[in-house]
Amino acid sequence: MDTEAAVVHPDAPAPGSELAMHYKECFGCGDEQEAGLHLRSTVGEKSSVHSRFLVTTAHQGAPGLAHGGLLACAFDEALGACVGNLLRRPAVTGKLETDFLRPVPVGSTLFIAAHLDGVAGRKIYVSADGHLDAADGPVAVRARGLFVTVGFEHFRSHAGQESLDKLKAAGRARQNDWDINP
Ligand SMILES: CCCCCCCC/C=C\CCCCCCCC(=O)SCCNC(=O)CCNC(=O)[C@H](O)C(C)(C)COP(=O)(O)OP(=O)(O)OC[C@H]1O[C@@H](n2cnc3c(N)ncnc32)[C@H](O)[C@@H]1OP(=O)(O)O
């Protein structure tokens, strides 16, 4: 694939910044989504974002072990947070690949290190490693994502009015908050 290096937006939060949830009802990071994953993310060095996911009994597949689909969801969120916050462009997941290398037990924390790999037009390539219980713990899950830059029209034309009102209330619907360049 022919990609260019991803250039972090000059207004992106600096390394070390704790990222705010992007939407309080988001399944991945929202604090008003009781059944959600409650990921917490921090900007890292060199086009990276570090997210933490505490696996609870709500996330089980087999007894005592995380469900693979929920782990994929955690990576979707972590990769999306990396893309959205570092590039400051609205983008959606086009493709998400996951390798499950080790079981992830209930009670463990997955430390997900996501990194921007490159950009080709509207396509943004991003990948992540999920380390068990420490930033340098063994890699349990690995993921690669392709995000596609979209205009705000994507959300306007597909989401219901009530959701758009919530988005506006959160101050996210203002186009000048983002670089729209699909
Ligand atoms: C106003 C709100 C703003 C919010 C921003 C907040 C940011 C806050 C910060 C951060 C937090 C974010 C955290 C969120 C994390 C979760 C993210 C999700 O889960 S998103 C939901 C799941 N994904 C979908 O629902 C997409 C559904 N699909 C679509 O809408 C379309 O298919 C779309 C937009 C992906 C592409 O459609 P087209 O018509 O616009 O464009 P075409 O031409 O088809 O694709 C563009 C290029 O991408 C490639 N492409 C698209 N899909 C591909 C695929 N699956 N595999 C390979 N290539 C693909 C195509 O081949 C094309 O490439 P070529 O330019 O020709 O080289």
From TrEMBL:
Which UniProt key words apply to this protein? Apoptosis, Cell membrane, Cell projection, Cytoplasm, Fatty acid metabolism, Hydrolase, Lipid metabolism, Membrane, Transit peptide
The topology of this chain with respect to the membrane is: Peripheral membrane protein
Example GO biological process: fatty acid metabolic process
Name the major location. membrane
- Thioesterase domain residues are 64-129
Entry annotated with the keyword Lipid metabolism: yes
Instruction: Output a single Gene Ontology CC term carried by this record.
Output: cytoplasm
| GO MF, one example | hydrolase activity
Keyword RNA-binding among record annotations: no
The UniProt catalytic activity note for this protein reads: (5Z,8Z,11Z,14Z)-eicosatetraenoyl-CoA + H2O = (5Z,8Z,11Z,14Z)-eicosatetraenoate + CoA + H(+); decanoyl-CoA + H2O = decanoate + CoA + H(+); (9Z)-octadecenoyl-CoA + H2O = (9Z)-octadecenoate + CoA + H(+); hexadecanoyl-CoA + H2O = hexadecanoate + CoA + H(+)
Pfam families from the xrefs? 4HBT (PF03061)
Q: Where in the cell is it found?
A: Cell projection, Ruffle membrane; Cytoplasm; Membrane
- Sorted alphabetically, which SUPFAM superfamilies does this protein's record hold? Thioesterase/thiol ester dehydrase-isomerase
Instruction: Give EC number(s), comma-separated.
Output: 3.1.2.2
Transmembrane residues, as ranges?
none
Q: Which PANTHER family match?
A: ACYL-COENZYME A THIOESTERASE THEM4 (PTHR12418)
Indicate the family of this protein.
Answer: Belongs to the THEM4/THEM5 thioesterase family.
Protein known as: Acyl-coenzyme A thioesterase THEM4
Q: Which organism is it from?
A: Amycolatopsis antarctica
Q: Taxonomic lineage of this organism?
A: Bacteria, Bacillati, Actinomycetota, Actinomycetes, Pseudonocardiales
